[in-house]
Amino acid sequence: MASIGTPNTEFIDRILKEQVEGEKPSLHNACFSAIGTEGTLYSAAYGSRDLARSQPISLDSFFWIASLTKLSTAVATLIAVEQGLVTLDQNVRDIVPELKDLDVLEGFDDNSVPLLRKCTAPISLRQLLSHSSGFCYDKQHEGLQRWAAFVGKTENTFTGSYTGYLQPLIFEPGQGWAYGPGMDWAGRTIEVVAKQDLETFMKTNIWTPLDMGSTTFQPWKRPDLEANLVELAIRTPTGAIVKGKVPYGYPAPDCCGGVGLYSTPSDQTKFLSALLSGGAGIISEGGLDELLRPQTEDPSHFISIVCGTSRAHLGQTWPEGAQGDFGLSSSINAADFPGRRAANSANWQGMPGVHAWLDCTSGLAGLFVTQILPPGDKLVTKTFGELEREVYKLYGSMK
């Protein structure tokens, strides 16, 4: 992609360098790209792939992008819809055999026995993609953990198999909002209707057309990419940075539509640029509009979690008091964030400090990538916010 002139990016450089250089850096690496409708505003990488700081990072280094995977899965689903393979409101329980028999967890009796009832309601792709299907990540729900212990279930949503994702719903489809593995079941739906695995479907319909040759669910099959894999770090309660491990069923995930992608900042920037430019032929403008519009029946469920109980993780980039809803894979803010993204922008993040936003109103998108746990790291959130504000200042000065 061509660059837009020669904007003054000194302040953006300074923000990134401050986090990865010096005697006590807060991050071992940081990559950031900002994109306008006319091309790249900024793109740079600082730091190292390893904590020993012996291997320089680049925009072609290989990262686990975790929940940023969800955006790709949502786009792939809309492509399948546009190909006539399925509709957003079709009952996927009639398509995916594993979803035919589901329970809803209502609580526990006095003896800690789970109280279950059969779910008879349909589940749509729209609900799976907007986290309103009733599925929830078991590691984030005490009731599901108690249920798993009661039935002796050892696989979970981070062991990388469809068996791990089979669990009771925590509410009737469409009657709430819970962050969970709906994207994985959307990916499974694509596999059934397209009669091919999700990797092949995405490669054919997204990665190859956009020249994203360094993106995959199966890095163990790409030694050329694995050689550039970025080391994951964990920030301890004392602030120290130590070596970590991807908390997912790598290297053998069955279902991977939610957190399973590995990619490079360069590839993900191409993907965001394609969406910012109206779909770039991989998805129609109508499909893009569907992706970016509010989707839940009652946004209060979303707000109560993303800007309430799970704010530190899921709503970390939203100002206090912000309102909005969830689209198909991303949060959608109802009003402008002052000095930052405009109303109706999409944003989401991945567990190890991976952030992206898409502001079609202003014609700006951005991507910040690092590799540090736990999710919601305050220094990552602060850095991302500073970078976003600086990009909007820069863009405003160029008009």
Could you walk me through the main structural features you see in this protein, from its secondary elements to its overall organization?
With 399 residues, the protein is of the alpha+beta class. It has a domain at 80-194. The chain has helices at 10-20, 69-82, 125-129, 142-151, 162-165, 182-194, 198-207, 223-226, 265-276, 285-291, 299-309, 311-314, 378-398, and strands at residues 29-36, 39-47, 63-64, 103-108, 114-118, 233-235, 241-243, 262-263, 324-326, 331-333, 346-350, 354-359, 364-369, 372-373. The strands form four sheets. Strands 2-1-13-12-11-10-9 form a seven-stranded antiparallel β-sheet, with helices on both faces. The protein has a three-stranded mixed β-sheet with strand order 7-6-14, with no helix packed on it. Strand 11 and strand 12 (354-359) form a beta hairpin. Mean pLDDT is 93; it is low at 1-6.
Features:
alpha+beta, three-stranded mixed β-sheet, seven-stranded antiparallel β-sheet, 14 strands, 399 residues, disordered N terminus, hydrolase
